[in-house]
Design a protein that fits this description.
The chain is mainly beta and 277 residues long. It has helices spanning 106-116, 154-163, 228-231; strands at residues 4-10, 19-21, 23-27, 30-31, 37-41, 46-47, 59-63, 66-70, 78-80, 89-94, 97-103, 120-124, 149-153, 177-180, 190-195, 198-207, 236-237, 241-250, 254-257, 262-267. It is built from 3 helices and 20 strands. Strands 1, 2, 13, 14, 15, 16, 17, 18 and 20 form a 9-stranded mixed sheet that branches. The protein has a 5-stranded antiparallel sheet with strand order 6-5-12-11-10.
Length: 277
């Protein structure tokens, strides 16, 4: 069976629900529209569902350049168009990496502040925003945690679910690209791959955090610490952490589609995992 793309997805607001796609334009900083918005508090610190699980229940849709958001706790949704933003920026940071975010509107700040019961601002990754990846400092990234693209595979998720007490949805891991047709965790050995006309480089395994313990449909946290507890038994890298999926950077821009074949251009040795089973 050939390797194929089975899912494509973006998360326009950091921590919001997934928007599944049939195709997407690939930019060097990520899939188009992915992680372009983010919430910050009064100190300029970024907020995610790690501390505010309600964010995972925000439904998102995109029409043209307009982002529409709704939440079950809010009677009225909001529509956000970056063409209407003023040219004002504020300094913030993501994991101690400085980045400037374009201010949006007090209307949107109020909507999110009421939702979280906390004074917050909504910022946009605008034309003057600039941030680069740590291991490939020549390549840009928007408001994603560390790298522009996250790839997972269906076989690896199935293997995880067969090992643990809980059936985990792929949405818990928030990938941009999902592949089918491989053996479990074969993605560890893919150094460079081609999807459509775009070449991606596997930079590092993706370290997973408490975010994965949130049910994407209810925002409730797993009482058993799953899937982290099961992953820790066989996907632990010393001094790195528990991993699932791989972080990618793109070598060029283009368009990719669900159903595209995946060609492995170069292999690598997988990281040495500590097996506690």
């Amino acid at each position: 069976m050939s390797l194929q793309v089975s899912q494509l997805a973006v998360y326009p607001l950091k921590s919001c629900k997934v928007i599944p796609l049939n195709s997407s334009r690939v930019t060097l900083s990520g899939l188009e529209f992915d992680r372009r918005y983010m919430l910050i508090d009064e100190k300029g610190l970024f907020l995610t569902a790690r501390d505010y699980p309600a964010l995972t229940l925000i439904e998102a849709s995109i029409t043209g350049t307009t982002l529409s958001l709704s939440h079950p706790q809010q009677y009225v949704g909001i529509s956000i168009n970056p063409d209407q933003f003023d040219d004002h920026y504020v300094n913030t940071e993501i994991w101690e990496t400085p980045v400037s975010g374009q201010l949006t509107s007090s209307q949107f700040d109020t909507w999110f502040s009421e939702l979280l019961n906390l004074p917050v601002k909504l910022v946009y990754f605008g034309d003057q925003s600039e941030r680069f990846t740590s291991r490939r400092p020549d390549l840009p990234v928007a408001f994603a945690d560390g790298y522009p693209f996250l790839l997972t595979t269906e076989a690896s998720l199935e293997d995880l679910n067969n090992r643990g007490p809980q059936v985990n949805e792929m949405e818990r891991f928030r990938p941009n690209i999902v592949i089918t047709g491989n053996e479990p965790f074969a993605e560890d050995t893919w150094k460079r791959i081609r999807i459509g006309n775009v070449v991606f480089e596997n930079v590092k395994p993706c370290e997973r955090c408490i975010f994965t313990t949130l049910d994407p449909n209810t925002a409730e946290r797993s009482r058993k610490g799953e899937p982290l507890k099961t992953l820790a038994k066989f996907r632990l890298i010393a001094k790195e952490g528990v991993t699932f999926g791989v972080n990618l950077v793109a070598e060029n821009e283009g368009t990719i589609h669900v159903g595209d074949e995946v060609e492995i251009l170069e292999f690598q040795q997988a990281y040495p995992y500590k097996d506690k089973r």
